[in-house]
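Hi U.,

Before I forget, here's the chain from the pilot set. I'm dumping it here mostly so it's searchable later in email.
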Amino acid sequence: MDGARIFGLFEDDLPAEQVDAEFVLEKLLHLRAVEAPLNLKEKVLARIGFAGEELQLDNLPPTSRHSNYLSWLKAMEPLLPNEPVESMFLKEIRRDERYVQSLVVTKVNVPEEVHESYAESFFILEGRCACTIDGQVFEIAAGDYLPIPLHVPHDVRLLTPQVTAILQYELC
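Structure:
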């Protein structure tokens, strides 16, 4: 028997085999696929220079998982301390009937706490930390947004010497 016929390499067999191979490969890819983190697109675009919207200090939006950390970092640049921080720098940047936002530069961990009158969230601009929320540990880094529900114990442990973040309270 001809070797070409064993492997189905005749011209009229190739398109059907190609379709079958593509179908099998697609199924294998779906089986092995891993869901990307929700804010991956924003992080990749920010890293390659698409900084997104330009933020105005007098009209800051709430932070969310869709926020662009490089846009925030650029907007916060004039507010960052000129001298090295000894333990913690905190500067309020927004206060209204719904939100309080602060720029935080810290070298210290935050012990466990519980908030009763506002929901807290962190939006990391530089550095890495681990937040334990109700016993579950979340490692977050630049570009990550982490909401913390009301009445839930949580703490923050730095994984880098310093973390720069937007601390946001949503008032209830």
